[in-house]
Design a protein that fits this description.
heterodimer; A: 122 residues; mainly alpha; Helix Hairpins; two-stranded antiparallel sheet; 2 strands; B: 152 residues; alpha+beta; 2 helices; rod-shaped; Prefoldin beta-like protein (chain A); Prefoldin alpha subunit (chain B)
Amino acid sequence: MSLEARLQTASAEYQKLQSDLAHSVDARTRLDTQLSENEMVKKEFAQLTPSNTVYKLVGPVLVHQDQAEAKTNVETRLEFIRGEIKRVDGQIKETEAKSDKKKDELVEIQAALQQAQSQTSG
Amino acid sequence: MASPQPQQINVADLDIQQLADVRRQLEEELNHLTNSFAQLKQAQAKFKSCIENVAEVKPQNKGNTILVPLTNSLYVPGRLTDPEHVIVDVGTGYYVKKSRAQAIKYYEAKVDYIRTNLDSLQETISKKQDNMNYLVNVMQAKLQAQSQIAKT
């Protein structure tokens, strides 16, 4: 394969990796917001007295829910979100490593290309 | 923050083009921060008006007729039967029935929480503004020096 073609495919791959990375970072920020919101709810639930009835919004109606049930619900949600954050963090690291490698490859190809050009002209 | 200390290198070493770039970046950050500040202020005002509204649901008003909005323009008459309890949205789709005192405490805590956020945001904003002022000063000095060189 010619150097130009290699450069083109490599830069396309690099761009794809960059957009993947942006996607993952986006997802990570969203998860962070969800985590803090759920933690706020958990803190609120911790202060409830038995007289406080808990309702859950299901579509347009408020459905009565046990305090204990609501608490475990939020707890599982928090666990799920933490798991997702770990997964996305791993993804980000992986993509970063991959894109770093691609960058090195790109620099290498470019250097080779320049050398080839100076040889043909010189 | 992307760059709380953007000047690792001395600003005086940069040329005018680079200074303008840094300035644009700082302007963007400042814009974003002041927007967040305004949003937080709005949220705080909302919680404050909630406190006032809860204060209106008092025992003296029990049995009074009120108008309940069904849509923006359609109201039906209703009667206040339980002035002791209100239902509070605590986030993520959960609502909790609270006594009035509890509800007011909840909203006060919210307002306070936002205030601490606002304070720290204010600090960041003024720091950025200081950076910006310094940068503009350096830029002006550079421009002056340049025009002087052009004259001689």
